[in-house]
Amino acid sequence: MGLKRWIDAWPVYRQLTGTDPLGRGKAAQSPRSAALGSRTESADRMVHSVCPYCAVGCAQRVYVKDERVIQIEGNPDSPISRGRLCPKGSASKQLVTGPQREEHVLYRPPCGTQWQRLDLETAMDMVADRVLDARRKGWQDTDEEGRTLRRTMGLASLGGAALDNEENYLIKKLFTALGALQIENQARI
Amino acid sequence: MGSNMAEAHPVGFQWVIEAKARGAKVIHIDPRFTRTSAHADQHVTIRAGTDIAFLGGVINHILGHDLDFREYVRAYTNASFLVNERFQDTEDLDGLFSGYDPHTAAYDASSWSYAGVTAQERPGDHAKETSEPYRHGAKGPFVEEGPGEMEADPTLEHPRCVFQVLKRHFARYTPEMVERICGVPQELFLDVCRAWTANSGRERTTALVYSVGWTQHSVGAQYIRAGSIVQLLLGNIGRPGGGIYALRGHASIQGSTDVPTLFNLLPGYLPMPDVAHEDLAGYLDTVRGPREKGFWGDADAYMVSLLKEYWGEAATAENDYCFDYMPRMNGDHGTYRTVMDMNDGKVFGYFLLGQNPAVGSAHGRLQRLGMANLDWLVVRDLAMIESASFWKDAPEVETGEIATERCRTEVFFFPAASHVEKAGTFTQTQRMLQWRDQAVAPSGDQRSELWFFYQLGLRLKERLAGSTDERDRPVQDLAWDYETEGDEPSASDVLRHMNGIDLRTGRTVDGYFDLKADGSTACGCWIYSGVYAGETNQARRRTPHTRTGPYDAEWGWTWPLNRRVLYNRASADPDGQPWSERKKLVWWDAEAGEWTGHDTPDFERTKPPHYQPAEGASGPDALSGSDAFIMMRDGKAWLFAPAGLADGPLPTHYEPHESPMRNLLYGQQANPVRKVYGRPDNPSNPAPPEAHGEVFPYVFTAARLTEHHTAGAMSRQLPYLAELQPALFVEVSPELAQERDLRHLEWAHVITSRTAVDARVVVTDRMAPLRVDDRVVHQVWMPYHWGTTGLTTGDVVNDLIGVVADPNVFIQESKVLTCDVRPGRRPRGPALLEYVADYRRRAGITPETGTRIATAGGHTERAHIESHDRPEDAS
Amino acid sequence: MTRENSFHGPLTDPAADAGHRDHPPRVGFFTDTSVCIGCKACEVACKEWNDVPEDGIDLLGMSFDNTGMLGASSWRHVAFVEQERPLGRQDAGLADLPVGPSGTEATTEVVADALEVAKRGGGDLGTAPVDLGFPSFGLPGAATGVESRTEFRWLMSSDVCKHCTHAGCLDVCPTGALFRTEFGTVVVQPDICNGCGYCVSGCPYGVIDRRPVDGRAWKCTMCYDRLRDGLEPACAKACPTDSIQFGPLDELRERADRRLAALHEAGVPEAQLYGRDPEDGVGGDGAFFLLLDDPEVYGLPPDPVVPTRDLVSIWKHVGLAASALVAASAAVFLRGGRR
């Protein structure tokens, strides 16, 4: 910083030489303040979303910069929410960017005392094997009267109600093909 | 009623505030004075679990003073239909309807049918698991005859007509009785009646809002029926400003019912096949009866299209479209039944997908012990949750019931993608699908459920590709060929297939009326048909509300067919004209020869108001021009439900499973067909006529806070939310505080026969005791968001709650139970078990407690404990 | 530019008074507490936008208020007031219930004791209750000791920096860290603030405070960065019921007057405006309120006075004092610059 700029930056100098002799306004504004702007304006893109908490369905605008979410706020265009969000919806950025988010598959072997890391592909293969095993162990072809059951009672699923419709669709479809009946979600609760 | 809208749906509450500013009166009826009450014109404190008594009182007030909207009732409800001569009411049978079998605690509902209808009698030994309701999907049950032959009395005076049956049934729900049961002073109750009726009719409508405060009861479905009857009598259904709003609590819980991951449903509320269904024709015969009215008449098109979507090319007319590939149900396979089966070693693997039952389901202890008894558990969530870490930090580790080193459950934790890291639709509480675009890619191993299940499906297909076992055919033939983006299926392509595709052209269909039963269309969810009309993702529409009309038709997409108000034909009179200028919504335009209006008409567009169906017509063709309730089999709204409910054709006040009070209306204490699970690991607190209820003298209810979300995984971990509600508390009135020596901000513990939990005491005037039948009843409540992980931790409130369920939908009664409250902290470790066991001893609790279901007529029938009731396991 | 009254009394254009030429209209908040549902969206939206740290996961037991008061890390604070009196024509439904006396007096005492030891975002919650009052559970002396309570109401109100026309914090800030923006709002600049703390005692509302981690003073900026891009502040945008309204102050004052009249007409005579009056001790607030009770019930000072009102006479009569102020601030600035 050169001497002139340094002097200019001194509020008292600006105060004594500008329109703000008391030094409480323009003269006191720092370069940082003078350059301030909304970070949403400098976002790379804005993406439309919907709040993941309750079922009101408030529209959200997700602002992204350098492939990171930098802000989530309401979308005033929505006929449902008119841009407003409750405290949970307002905390959405913390929900998706906070340190509580797990990033790795964790595995606890039978009788294990702590978590272990597991490769995603390996874990998927292990789950596929176990699904078939449980399916086999709980398989029922017919009931006591000989009527068709064609099902397994060996595995079950309980889903949250923040899953997408498309996800629920595939879940039900796959489990039904496997013969798994005990496929439930929060709506039962 | 049963809703704390300001706290649970704050952004939705802006419309209530706005309505209030325009002069609407807001009444809040709730056990607690909440942030909703703070903005109500009238707050009514009610004893938890007595809403039907209150609503029954309102119905009695309406009928007793001729305050119903008679023209509406006569035109659009089944008020004039005559009920079967064999029907006997709770008036006749001390709180039971005809057809009750105390041995099975289930009804044979055949006598509830309309007069002249040959309903099939059901053997009395039918267990309630095979009773009707959960097998029906949403379609409603049969009405065997067409309405042409229906015996009816348009004057509504015949003693067996629905109107008179209703009048008689509710006659004893007097203001005095409401006061004695609900604890609501008569004058206050009458104020509500006057406000409700005065604000209904041609010129005015009243809206009714409920939430899980109504559903989480052993009589939950009947709560909603009772609300429906009031709204129908007052003409508040299908009309602007009227209706019943089920405010749902999760982003796509409506969607997860429409596109169900529920054991008894297929997409679009088609019932899951059961053992009685030998083939597709047999299945369809139970979905749509011959000569029945309404759009379920096209169920063959919906079901065949679904089977075509599931099994694609493999599904042909010759092989019944692979109907035989479907697993069959034969009982209660709901989540609580499954968890008990886990405890009994009958379940080996379990997926938890964004769900935390160790905290969020009733009887958390049973949940955790069940999980500790599995071969393997897969948990997919955003953050670490109690249901994944139970093997090391469950309360049962502290009590010694789960030993980490001996707990054999293999646990896989998969990090999930968040709502901004994947594209797809949520269906919100008004049935509106809204598309989310993907904002950023997930990190590390985080993946969507779409990825996970698609990839799992690929692996399973690969493993079973060479199998010759018949049971593997459904997987081998499964259509699993969605367009992909990278290694993940395209959500929009999945939505396209849910919308439905004309297989001859490969293009999307425009709505469910385009679906065919001949295998030429594939459709994953018929009620969502239209969401991708014109090969355009309608759920992604975002025309600002400032540029569209009052019904905002170009924002998202609302099923069915972008209609906002269901059954809105009823907003016009039988002649097709609006009931009033002020309340016009859709109407018949005679010149144009079609229905028109502000909303999409929920009626065939060109069917005139005076249309009469041809002789022998069925399905939609059988609907007359004034059959506004187009999904019902008789085209009418049901004041009296001639079938379809497990616990009676009319709502009846029963005390909760756990109650401090004897039922003042009938000898039958509680719901006579409620689903009890009498097991040593699921004890109940005693309720009259059982002895020792005084050990648990207080009424307990659980609820949520604005600042937290359900089981807490999405809020307890967030500093900005955790600091706003930083600790588990129990709220008590000053009067109860004095009675139990509880001090503000000090510790207390709440005890039931299941366990005891610690919490800080909050003494507040917002809680008030009630005078119920000349005794004072105290109510306490706790928020249920806490567990052992997160920035704020606390005991699991759901551990207090046992499992007893509504017999129609198998939802647990978690909104009302009994408890004791004591100052100070609960015992820790094994001492806790001893402490609770001592309570059980003092209350004389055995597995049979609470399971002697039938109490009408002064004698108590046998206990329903699991060893007696469990159907033989199929092999 | 400088007029005699620029430290107190009405001032039509504080931005111009602070040297901003061709500035946008003065903006502010009108917080209509009669529609506040106490959801605290404002608190969270503020923290998310401004990256304000969490400041204490403690149960305060002040009804549903666990924030306690405004501070360096709480720029919005929702107060909850439980009272034994009716709200307009609202019927709390207590008549004929078997209730005893109110419990609020006892709980208030417990809370007050607990607050003495609760630390919060740099401000010790218990340090100044006598001066500022707390969001209270009832009117002083309201608990009459009668046998049973008959009335009840639950008030909620979101508090915020008032962005005073005459801002004590700004007037005493020796470094120029606080400044009056072109919008007429008052903002503390973290790149200038050296944590001297004069502003803390300069605020008649007890709003501005220092953060323990860095010692600097922080408070609501009315989202200065958002304003510069034409956006409304985060809290006002989130507020589900529009209890927090943002806009040009003149418009807000008119809107508030209409709302007040409507409430009076609707049978809520207790409704009153707070901070609306340009003749008050701070020349009117840039953030003002519609309250349903006297301000002290919400923890607001009934008659806030800018501490620098007396500075005018010093300025006028003791020219030397002004020079001394310049010298003092130069010293502080240089010290800060070397940090």
Can you put this structure into words, describing what you see?
The complex is a heterotrimer of chains A (189), B (875) and C (339). Chain A has 189 residues and is an alpha+beta fold. Chain A folds into three domains: 32 residues, no CATH class; 53 residues, Single Sheet (N-terminal domain of TfIIb), CATH 2.20.25; 70 residues, no CATH class. Chain A is 32% helix and 25% strand. Chain A contains seven helices and eight strands. The radius of gyration of chain A is 29 Å and the shape is elongated. Helices cover 23% and strands 13% of the residues of chain B. The longest helix of chain B is centred in the middle third of the chain and has 16 residues. Chain B has 875 residues and is of the alpha+beta class. Chain B has 24 helices and 31 strands. In chain B, a hairpin with a 2-residue loop joins strand 27 and strand 28. The C terminus of chain B is likely disordered. Chain C is α+β, with helices and mostly antiparallel strands and 339 residues long. Chain C has a single domain, classed as Alpha-Beta Plaits (2-Layer Sandwich), CATH 3.30.70. A four-stranded mixed sheet of chain C has the order 10-1-12-11. A two-stranded antiparallel ribbon of chain C has the order 2-5. Chain C is globular and about 65 Å long. The two termini of chain C are 34 Å apart. The interface between A and B is large, with 122 and 162 residues.
